[in-house]
Description:
Layout: H1 6-22, H2 35-65, E1 68-75, E2 78-85, E3 90-96, H3 98-132
Antiparallel strand pairs: 1-2, 2-3
Amino acid sequence: MPLYCRETYRSDILAKIIVSTNSSPGHSPFVMSEAPTRRFLMTCRIVCVIGILNFVIFVASAFYLGGDAVNGEVEGARYYLFGVRTEAGRKVYTEVSEPVFNYSKWHAYSFLATRPLVMAAGFAANRKRSVER
Length: 133
């Protein structure tokens, strides 16, 4: 008790006793609220939903545009996406404008950034739920 004065220490013990007598059976006597846990789980769910939507939009845009800019090339003032074209049935370069190329590049980077976040949020939410059970 080096940092507490006696009155502070006594009031802390009294508060713990009051909390422990008011708790319901089967629950920890020192848990005041489950709001932080619910907020954490909701945040994890939101991160997972945003990441999954980002993945779906990335795949749809890569199919529609004919590839992605991460694997594409820039030759002078010409921009090419690399990917599977449905007309060709194999991987080819598709020429696009500079704004489309930049969109594809940054969307691919955002997908690469959100993928580990989604995995971590899913793992943390699953771990938090299994600890609660």
